[in-house]
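USER:
I wish I could look at a protein chain and see how it folds. I am handing you a single protein, as its sequence and its fold in token form. As I understand it, each token names a local backbone shape. I hope you can help me see how the letters and the tokens relate. The protein I mean follows directly.
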Amino acid sequence: MADDPLRSNPPSDPAGNPVRRARAMVEAEVPPARRGPGWDRHWRELEAYVEAQAGVWTGAGAGEEPFARDD
């Protein structure tokens, strides 16, 4: 694969990334044979999105606390 920024820039703290933790839980339930061809890229894109947002979720409603990292 040519220059793939998601492969060349892995999440800086995989354990602190909520998407990475979710992926581990889902992969524990879904066998590799049932995962589609875009499986890995889908998860890497979500992980990169969380990293780019630096722990701030834009979906917080009025009066709600946005997602904040515990580190």
